[in-house]
């Protein structure tokens, strides 16, 4: 089969239904695949859908561990491997982390054999690039329908994806040089980077599972909007569920966000351009006030002025900035330096401070150099709520608990202004399951 499978949209829909099978399709019929005015193919509602309703469930083509987990997980069942000092690598010498149960099962044997044949140069180390490559190697083992689906997905061309394969090749003494196989890997890397979902597959935090990276043929057709009408969660490592965050009318395109909801417009634009190769022109992106949230805002650089500055043009990545009070205009280069300063100062603290120092820093220091609406400060507050809801031994003062409640109320108000509806972030903040 040639690399890249050209298929009409109706035939792609048939193939996806074949992949999902009748049992899964039974309660999975609120959607259809059509050409999208946003880009290529998209998913559309065939009936009115309520907020909170499940729109669709999708079954992965392949899954694998992510490279960024702070704790090692089994690369087959994704359960966290408790004691990192214990021998957690595959007993047969492929170098991948594996739990006791999966090391005795058969699911890992084919990829294990390949890894051993390619000879990892550092077999006693767990190398992040190789963890990320597991999901790509598994594309070799797809059945006919699943392979056709993989090759029918959009796969953006990017020189960094070639680097990704090169870096993997350098980790092995005997990596294949066969052109067909390398092209298949290259294509699979591009398809993953364009379409894959990453997330925790332990929604209830009961199974002790880590983060997974997976490619879903139907959910890969979801286009992006910065204020989306749908969100997702992993029901298991192989199952992705898409839910409506607000009521969706029959005929409306179902869209998710590829970025974090609380990022500023410039941050989202840069991320989408660099990683997904498009410029978003949704209503949120063209509103300089960012739905009245002023997530980009920085203090005016004019001496004596206490106003806030926002980017004035919405189409460029290097806009001029204008003060809403004194109307001074500053070039992006100057404001970008100032934004970087705020970002680095706050992020350095996030990584190094205790929770109580972080609260003091947010309340007493940040207002001197960063408007409260700026997305970096918003993310810092989110981080405090997250750490406080996870802390099991620390005892907080009444004052600190009040701060947490205030941050929560501010964040919920922000999500309301953005029209984010019943999104996963709102649920996590409300239920303190961040
Ligand atoms: C996950 S795919 C979405 C499905 C894709 N439309 C297709 O036909 O397979 C992601 C790609 O779709 C395109 N895309 C998604 N949302 C878009 C939007 N709002 N505006 C322009 N292009 C978009 C971009 O090229 C992006 O890299």
Structural summary, described in words:
This protein is of the alpha+beta class. Helix content is 41%, strand content 14%. It is built from 14 helices and 14 strands. The strands form four sheets. Strands 1-2-10-7 form a four-stranded mixed beta sheet. Strand 1 (31-35) and strand 2 (41-45) form a beta hairpin. Helix 6 (159-170) crosses helix 7 (179-195) and helix 10 runs antiparallel to helix 11. The longest helix has 21 residues, at 332-352. The model has no long low-confidence stretch (mean pLDDT 92). The structure holds S-adenosylmethionine. Residues 36, 38-42, 154, 156, 194-195, 220-221, 223-225, 276-278, 280 line the site of S-adenosylmethionine (SAM).
Can you give me a brief rundown of this structure?
This is SET domain-containing protein SmydA-8 isoform X3. With 434 residues, this protein is α+β, with helices and mostly antiparallel strands.
